[in-house]
Amino acid sequence: MVELVDLPVYPFFIDLGYYVLGNKEPFKTFKASVPILATWDDHDYGYNNGGKEFPHKTASKNSFMKFWNISPDSPMRSRGGVHNAYYYGEGEFRVQIILLDTRWFLDVISREPITATRDTSKHILGEEEWQWLEQELRKPARIRIIGSSTQFGIEHNGYEAWANYPHEMDRFFNLIKSTRAEGLFFVSGDVHYAEISRRAVDGLYPIFDVTSSGLTQLEGSSKPNMFRVGDSFTDFNFGMIHINWNDNPVTISQEIYDINGNVRIQNKISINDLKF
Hints:
Elements: H1 11-22, H2 25-33, H3 42-45, H4 57-67, E1 84-88, E2 95-99, H5 126-137, E3 143-148, H6 166-179, E4 184-188, E5 195-199, E6 207-211, E7 237-244, E8 251-258, E9 263-270
Parallel strand pairs: 2-3, 3-4, 4-6
Antiparallel strand pairs: 1-2, 5-6, 7-8, 8-9
Helix pairs in contact: 1-4
């Protein structure tokens, strides 16, 4: 997930932001050597904490499609937002990666500090994206990685997160249950520090959320999170997911690295831990 600098809400400046990013030598080197699956968050969608009311979101989507070379026949072009799913491997080695769009349909509640809403008419994904997500979760996969630009697993702390929309979180939990989608966990960003969260839900296996954020910008300190596994890490970082297919049972290593390549946070789980 790539987040640009905070830009004014004009299409020209969105294109300019992508131009600046695309011409940075470290990014060009990275893009040439590593396949990238892209989504957006607020600042590369439009503006800070923006949602469905953003008047230039279609132009912003066009800029996104152009910069990331999205195929002309991609289904992303015929639906609202930039959510998409990707598949790797076959049979027992099939991995599904779902990148959500948490901006296009987002009903903005308030400025920070944000009070969690009880208004069930307020949404993060919107009905169109929910229906698409259900179809994807019904497709076969051994491991499912859900990419959310804002954090899914944390407690409410007044900043952007799924915890501000508890009914939307419950809908997600219930959707996992109804589709019997196993092997699922989240990856997220946004907050400029790193942590791993674990949510225990009745009738469901534990839901992990691996947050890696702060590749180029730092927050200074982490926020309270009763669901945190171990410690947070507040320096520059990047995340890695290692699927150890040769282990019996298969294990998944969720790791946070510092800029020197040292592991600072690690959580290793068995695929059997992500089953009903």
